[in-house]
């Protein structure tokens, strides 16, 4: 059963309020999505294990902690996941980045895959799949299936906003994948948009439409 975490940190919630606001323009929207992704990366990596090392400070030896050689991979779902990538890499600069390209057919709402490129050592990495929106769940479900098919076993999903329908579908398809959110919204509308959501994440990030 997937565990669902909603990050209630005041900075995340404050910035999300501006991301949702339809008055927020493309430049500010893009900056805010990146900042929230960085803050969420800070929270999602809380369980990384540390190992002790010794360093020389200018004053003398100090026992210090470093992350214990965990190999991480970040996989944005194109397009909108790209908006979160740099924020996460600011916090986890050693992570490698894979890409899964999917778009939702506007008629059927089913995802259509058009691109997949992952790091070579997929089996050795823990992955964070990122997409601002988890609506019907179709895109995240297919993206995760695609990286599992290529050997990934340890996967987390990080989104800004989810609908309960998407979380339920994700849990049914991939009960081993935990979900990390900035907000759980009310529902989907008839076009598969999250209500109240933030609109079309890709269009708002890239200024299309
Ligand atoms: C959006 C969003 C997700 C997907 C969520 O992408 O970024 O990938 O919809 O919807 P779902 O949970 O119902 O699958 P979209 O298909 O609009 O493509 P884009 O990122 O290229 O704009
Ligand atoms: N994709 C988006 O960008 N927004 C939604 O609300 C649903 C799917």
UniProtKB/TrEMBL annotation:
Catalytic activity: UMP + diphosphate = 5-phospho-alpha-D-ribose 1-diphosphate + uracil
One Pfam entry name: UPRTase
Native source organism of the sequence: Alkalicoccobacillus murimartini
Name of the gene: upp
Identification of the protein by name: Uracil phosphoribosyltransferase
E.C. number(s) listed in UniProt: 2.4.2.9
Record-linked InterPro entries: PRTase-like, PRTase_dom, Upp_B, UPRT, UPRTase/APRTase
Function: Catalyzes the conversion of uracil and 5-phospho-alpha-D-ribose 1-diphosphate (PRPP) to UMP and diphosphate.
HAMAP family: Upp_B
Pathway: Pyrimidine metabolism; UMP biosynthesis via salvage pathway; UMP from uracil: step 1/1
Domain Phosphoribosyltransferase positions: 6-208
Alphabetic keyword roster: Allosteric enzyme, Glycosyltransferase, GTP-binding, Magnesium, Nucleotide-binding, Transferase
Regulation acting on activity, per entry: Allosterically activated by GTP.
Family: Belongs to the UPRTase family.
Cofactor: Mg(2+)
GO molecular function ontology, one term from the record: uracil phosphoribosyltransferase activity
Signal peptide: none
Positions annotated to bind uracil: 194, 199-201
Matching CDD domains: PRTases_typeI (cd06223)
Binding site for 5-phospho-alpha-D-ribose 1-diphosphate: 79, 104, 131-139, 200
UniProt remark on cofactor binding: Binds 1 Mg(2+) ion per subunit. The magnesium is bound as Mg-PRPP.
